[in-house]
Design a protein that fits this description.
Oligomer: single chain
Number of domains: 1
Helix content: 55-70%
Largest sheet: none
Mean pLDDT: 81
Strand content: under 5%
CATH architecture: Alpha Horseshoe
Order of helices and strands: HHHHH
CATH superfamily: Leucine-rich Repeat Variant
Radius of gyration: 13 Å
Number of strands: 0
C-alpha cells in the first residue's frame, strides 16, 4: 500500500490507474488493522492530488467515519505537497 501511494503521488494516475487498485485499497481501508487503514487512506490522499474532489466517488464503499476522516485530511495534504508531479524520461522531452 505504501509503495502504491508513493508511486501514485509521484507519477500520477495515468501510469497507475485507480480503477485497477480500487478494490484492493477498499479492502485495506475496511480492514481491522489500523496500519492497513492508514496506508489505504494515504493512497486516497495521493489520488486526491491528481483527481481532486473526484476521488470521493472511489470512496463510496468506505464506512462513513473513515470517509469523513479522509476528506478532512485531503486539504491539509494538498497544501503540504504543492510540487508533487514528476515526469518519466519520455514525458520530460
Amino acid at each position: 500500500m505504501g509503495l502504491l501511494a508513493s508511486l501514485i503521488q509521484a507519477y500520477g494516475i495515468k501510469k497507475f490507474p485507480p480503477a485497477k487498485f480500487n478494490a484492493l485499497i477498499e479492502n485495506a481501508a475496511n480492514n481491522t488493522v489500523p496500519a492497513m487503514r492508514t496506508e489505504a487512506i494515504n493512497c486516497y490522499k495521493s489520488m486526491y492530488l491528481w483527481l481532486g474532489e473526484a476521488v470521493e466517488t472511489l470512496m463510496q464503499n468506505l464506512k462513513p467515519a473513515q470517509k469523513e476522516a479522509a476528506v478532512k485530511e485531503f486539504a491539509e495534504f494538498k497544501d503540504k505537497n504543492q510540487n508533487h508531479k514528476r515526469y518519466t524520461r519520455s514525458e520530460q522531452a
